[in-house]
């Protein structure tokens, strides 16, 4: 189905009734959500993102406050240990009770909307949430280029659509100059940098990353052209101003400013999970909660939007029109209002507005849908937002806000006479929804499959270090965040982690190529075998160990035939060679015999974890974790304590014997 369950229709008495299902295809033509503080607009946006992810549509989200990052909190079970790490209380002795209450409340909210823990687990199994943090180690550190790569069709764009190309180059130059020269006269510098970027893009000079900035500094000091317009370089911008500009740009490579360009490369392929090995749909959250300066936030939004623009042009026009390729969600385009709005109305502008305009005006042709939301509707450029075909309006508390939204809806060719009354009356979570076809619905949003909260810096660290690992130990003790500090990696370890991420990307690319081979030759067992190994290397290793054990047992039980030199081919070579021999016992190519760890017998003195996460040892039952169900656990008796080893890892949970 291509429909999204985001709420229920409200009957004339204001009671939720039939399910409201939103068309997935409507997201391509952009969505605008507005409502005052406490209206539920953030929950509405997250519900749309959740539903789209379950339909296989990835999202890139800019999180300004930390409340969107909690999309990562999809618990395997709604129990106090799972919820406790994400509950903040003043008195730590009350944590256990608070976590249990939160788990029960979460469960009841799901039930109220016809949902259950199974739906949460489905989301967890199908969706992966990655949290990226520019200029910080709180999440996956990502570098933000001062100048993005050009679209692959930039020369063609200059010839066929010069207005769009000029807007891209000029806004990129303005963003850079505003960053390095925060105040004062900078018009000539902007024109000069615009000409430099256009020259570099047309001639294939790479200005991204630290090396790219170095190249730009060289071009500023020794321009690759003699004139700007009809004026000579020195007439347009004297050498002393060029020298100061070069020093300002060079300053971005020194000290704290250089932190912007350190970290994983910000590639949209990585952010959409194009090379994921596990096949999950990816939601990438770019968390800016630790960055408080509006200009810095606006700069990041601009660079992300520019990168999406280049990526979508590389892919070309979207095939068909019923499914978005990507959703881009910015929850607070109103910012702090006035000069500090991300999408302000005239006469104000922002670093990121030109980049957002490109996505809003052209994204639909490439299958990129924008979801833009605000609680400050009085400070938004509604003429630009008339490109949004879906409007979702919650409670607006002031007459100014209601008048501005009504003005915006008029631009969108919709103006019911009683709109002012209707948008003043809703309760929290209630919205008026105008869809692409012009139909108006009054709905109440459903609750989320993920735990809705604002993640603190300590909780972001915990998620990076331990993921959704349940609270371990007694809930009557403090949560020790100190051990998370110890997990923060050194520079060398961070480099290793980046290399692992690159390796995973490469494996994902290999899987994509193998799938293309299967598209041409569906009978290729070799391609299927390689995919199974690459997508589950740990499972392959377990199957290999089991196969080796079976070979050993068979060799001990059966004498070698005469003439044999006593050497058997290795299990790995046998498995990959696709050869079968009648005197080798069980065929190692028959993957049905060892398809999963759950079907294989555990090695040595061990048992399999039951479906409820429990294990039996010497007539007693011990409760572990459901996530280990079906896996082999080995027991360790040490100083009167029983410990457990799973996949070579000794669990911190132990019991007295």
From TrEMBL:
Residues 26-173 form the Helicase HerA central domain. This is Helicase HerA central domain-containing protein. Pfam families: DUF87. Residues 581-605 are annotated as: Disordered. Residues 582-599 have a biased composition (Polar residues). PANTHER family: SLR6007 PROTEIN, UNCHARACTERIZED PROTEIN YJGR-RELATED. InterPro entries: HerA_central, P-loop_NTPase, T4SS_component.
